[in-house]
């Protein structure tokens, strides 16, 4: 059994919200509940989140869409490459998160205890 962590961070790279997902699930499936009720000006994401439904939702919210696109997309959307460079903040967050051995190895047996460890690690990362 594998687990994916789908995370949303703010501009400085601090955890805002996250969701645990089964390892075999597409990343884009849990994006709507992740961003529900949160206002933001832009969403920066990689091509795993290149979904017409997500892009339509972001356009409806008035948020700037900065998502790298699958090469097979028939109608490519414009991508602000300078703003896309800021995606490294979420990658940095995951690198810091995986410094905690219990998270990197998924040592907790239940989702509840694993979630608690992620919150604890995020608090420690934020306090540094």
UniProtKB/TrEMBL annotation:
GO terms for molecular function: DNA binding; transposase activity. GO terms for biological process: DNA transposition. Signal peptide: none annotated. InterPro entries: Transposase_11. It holds the Pfam family DDE_Tnp_1. Residues 3-124 form the Transposase IS4-like domain. This is Transposase IS4-like domain-containing protein. It comes from Acetobacter oeni.
């Amino acid at each position: 059994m594998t687990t994916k962590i789908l995370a949303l961070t703010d501009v400085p790279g601090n955890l805002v919200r996250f969701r645990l997902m089964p390892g075999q699930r597409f990343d884009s499936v849990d994006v709507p509940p992740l961003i529900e009720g949160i206002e933001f000006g832009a969403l920066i994401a990689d091509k795993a989140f290149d979904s017409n439904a997500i892009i339509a939702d972001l356009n409806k919210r008035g948020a700037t869409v900065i998502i790298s696109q699958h090469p097979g997309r028939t109608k490519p959307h414009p991508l602000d490459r300078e703003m896309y460079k800021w995606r490294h903040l979420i990658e940095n967050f995951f690198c810091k998160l995986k410094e905690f051995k219990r998270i990197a190895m998924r040592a907790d047996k239940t989702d509840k205890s694993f979630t608690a460890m992620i919150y604890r690690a995020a608090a420690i990362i934020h306090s540094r």
